[in-house]
Amino acid sequence: MKRIYLLGIGCVFMMVVSAQEEREPDIVPVIQVNSNSLYGKVIDKASAKGLPAVSVQLYAGPARDSLVSAMFTRANGDFRFNNLPVTDSFKLVLSAIGYVPKEQLLQFTAGQNKNALQKDLGNVLLEQDVQTLTAVTVTAQRPALEMGIDRRVFHVERSLTATGGTAVDVMKNIPSVTVDVDGNVTLRNSSPQIFVDGRPTILTLEQIPADNIERVELITNPSAKFDAATTGGIINVILKRNKRVGLNGVASTGVGYPDILNGNLTLNAREGKFNFFGSGSYNQSGGETNGETERQNKENGVIDNYFNQNSVNTRNRRFTSLRFGLDYFLDNRNTISFTQGSVKGKFSNNEVQDQEYLNSSKTLERYGDRSSEGRSGFRRYTSELNYSHKFPDAGKELTAGITYNYGNGETNSDILNRYYNPDGTEASTPARVRNEGSNNNDQVTFQVDFVNPLGENAKLEAGIRSYMNNYQNKFSTFSISNGTETLLPLSNNIEYRETVNAFYITYSNKIKTFSYQAGLRTELSEFDGKLIDKGQDFGYKMPDSFQHLFDGLFPSLFLTKQLSDKEDLQLNYSRRIRRPNFWQLNPFVDINDPMNISQGNPQLRPEFTNSFELNYSKQYNNGSMLASVYYRNNQGDITRYSDTITAEQYQQLNNAAIDSNAILNTFINAQYTNRLGAEFTLQHRFSKSFDITPTINAEYQDVKAEVGDLNLSNDGINWEAKLIANYRITTADPSFFNNFSFQAIGEYESPRIMPQGEQIPEYSVDLALRKEFLKDKRASVTFSINDVFWTDRDGAIYDTDNFYQESYRRNIRSFRLNFTYRFGNADIKLFNRNNSNDNDDE
After folding, report:
1. Tell me, what CATH number does 725's domain have?
2. What is the DSSP string of 56-67?
């Protein structure tokens, strides 16, 4: 692993050296031009970004009385003059609103430009006109959601209800995304791939502070450029990374109920070739969540007995995160960046369950209580090294990076189960169980991407990616009797290695109002798992033979027709893969609920998806809309399957106080699942102060699944709707209510079919209020309520020949009060300099 890591770093620095050798020199006061073409790029000196629409004039001679040519720079700051006359000098004049005008004299000796050679003038730097900028007041706000034809971008700064929370709270505010009470995220009823800054992560969404997130990108049908393992789409979390000149930062702190405490500090300092950034945060939350289960156990289709259970889980979650890094601008075309992050946390869960066992006439036969105390800790680290090189040609770029995620954790729990007769006497000896586990995980991702424009409208993109994931998990379960511990068979010791090597190429072009992109991605993937104590191997390799070569090929095609300046119609197709995750493969048995246990299936195979989308987008004066019709065909769909445990399984688990009628939840590969859906998102501004974003998604789902002689096929229609409303008070007159913002989010999910039943409906409302104050609105106070009416529940109804069960768990309602202060000073000098020219490259 270390060799691979060091090899990747070496490759990156080899590319840095290569790029340095090809770098053109910066403009100097005297340039000898020996070609009939001059070109360059206009750069903002503060941000190092290309400037569009800059007026560039070229005069023959040192005076400004003989104009040769004039133009505006392109969107990336590029300009180019061709077929220039032979003369002894040129004068370059640049001007743009908000920037100090600049003149540059280009001299050469007559006769030295006889050969038709091209000359790159490099990057021409413009400085912001401070006096002009200070007189400009910007009042427009960027919308929270920006809708494109291929992706949607959600800006977290507009999310009031997520302030002081985690990425889970952010996801609740995004159209098309739903979150259950455990923080699991779905996108159009499918599980998306979660990335952080475009790379895989071992962090969960609950471990990422919301205050550290700049934006979230949603891609419902990724092209061949992205990982093939994105059947459910991509949710890419982009962390904040400020590059403003000087010292800038944001500090925030908050309290709330139940047991909520958070603090966050983000800093960045930039001067010359260096940009330093860092952030640290602390998050704490607690509370109680309750649940209910009601079951009817059947014998030959007739109810044989009943079971009822009530549970209360008291939880506390605390974690700290630290992230820092450095950008080094070798010059305006080459940048090296390093980022280091760490997250440490401790979680506790104390649950009490009350149980009732009744016969067929609903007479109490016995009752019981089960208490469990669980503790867990984790440490997660991320190291990332990136390099980018921008060629003189507009849009041509090479990027390379290596990401190393590593971490470990441990978990411990104690379970006590007691049973009583109806008269209160003990029905059996109390059962005690102790669990302990540990895990280690490291991931390496190495990726190189190259973008090469081919003319005005065409573009070729290609890249390679290598991903390796090593995981070890050891979990031991002991039954305790008379002070003696006995290792139970459900203990397991597992390790696996997952590797995915990929190459992609895409070509795009535009012909008048029609554009297209065709791409192909090939991936070679392998999963090698081992049950160490049992000497059992499991896993898969794709493609496993030449005959199955198509298992490693993932084409995509995007066709777009521009109907008008503000209307687009797009049809796209992609083929993707969904590989089973660790918990779906791990045969470990989770016994936290003695009547509803779960276990992975090491025989699972990846599923393949053919995905089609038809999108129509339109912008109008007061907003924008996006309408989509989609169809997904999932071959070998990984599907949840439940059944009562067998007599053999009960015998193995008896010492763990598992009921003989317990339900075992596991996973199977269905024959297929088809989804046909339509989604509509609208972003409408009624005024400068009031806007709404409603979203509705309706879907027909058809599941075809069989286990032996048991037919689990099912079909049905489900729908979900979300409404986000924002209102802001802005007045010219001083008022206490000025700069108040209000946000309300309402969501409803209808029942959704499963192979053996349906998930119950969910609905909730979140509210938030923010007040901005002090000069330039540097400070703000935000108050938010999550799940105002305490209605958010996650549950399911199972209806089979052997049992009928209704169960749910309720979300934790919370209140937060958060204070945020922004600060910065562009005039602060970080380094003492004796030479004022040290900053010329910036």
Report:
1. 2.40.170.20
2. EEEEESSSSS-E
